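User: quick one, sequence for these tokens?
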């Protein structure tokens, strides 16, 4: 009796197919498709593969979105480490430059962000994934606030954990709103205003160290 052992695709072939699916999905989103309403069949057709082949590579649309976030958004929140991870007393100007880059990066990934915000409303796995991304920002903020508090640049009665959470989600909520609903022409001014608000939130009532 002939062998019916399933042929295993070479790793390079798997990556090529997955790349086609990721690129096709991004293209559909850029074209105005809603991720919630986007069917696996439509994604497969745009990728030039069979629907069954999609499921060989991705368990479902949540798994696909997870990959999209990892590849398109994974490095976005790391940008903030350029200020929040630096303990130099450089004032709000450097923070503004970093946030301008952050907003520009979010704008370039607008459709992926829209898919995440849309999907996390009903998918706990996607929500947890997004929270883990914001946690990267929170880690940078926590490090900066803790170091500044120790140096006397942040009021000593400040709860570092609480202020970190407020600051991180202030950035996330406002940047998402700006990118999804705001005028792109106002992005630089928005980033500057957000930087000033964050600076005052963190350092505004601290005494000047002796």
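Assistant:
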């Amino acid at each position: 009796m002939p062998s019916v052992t399933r042929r295993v695709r070479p790793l390079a072939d798997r990556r090529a197919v997955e790349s086609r699916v990721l690129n096709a999905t991004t293209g559909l989103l850029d074209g105005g498709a809603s991720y919630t309403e986007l069917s696996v069949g439509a994604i497969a057709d745009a990728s030039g593969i069979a629907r069954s082949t999609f499921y060989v590579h991705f368990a479902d649309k949540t798994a696909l979105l997870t990959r999209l976030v990892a590849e398109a958004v994974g490095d976005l929140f790391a940008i903030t480490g350029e200020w929040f991870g630096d303990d130099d007393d450089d004032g709000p100007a450097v923070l503004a430059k970093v946030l301008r880059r952050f907003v520009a990066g979010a704008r370039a990934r607008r459709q992926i962000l829209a898919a995440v915000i849309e999907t996390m409303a009903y998918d706990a796995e996607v929500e947890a994934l997004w929270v883990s991304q914001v946690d990267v920002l929170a880690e940078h903020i926590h490090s900066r606030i803790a170091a500044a508090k120790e140096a006397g640049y942040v009021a000593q009665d400040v709860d570092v954990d609480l202020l970190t959470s407020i600051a991180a989600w202030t950035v996330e909520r406002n940047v998402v709103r700006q990118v999804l609903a705001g005028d792109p022409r106002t992005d630089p001014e928005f980033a500057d205003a957000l930087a000033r608000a964050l600076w005052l939130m963190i350092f505004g009532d601290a005494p000047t160290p002796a």
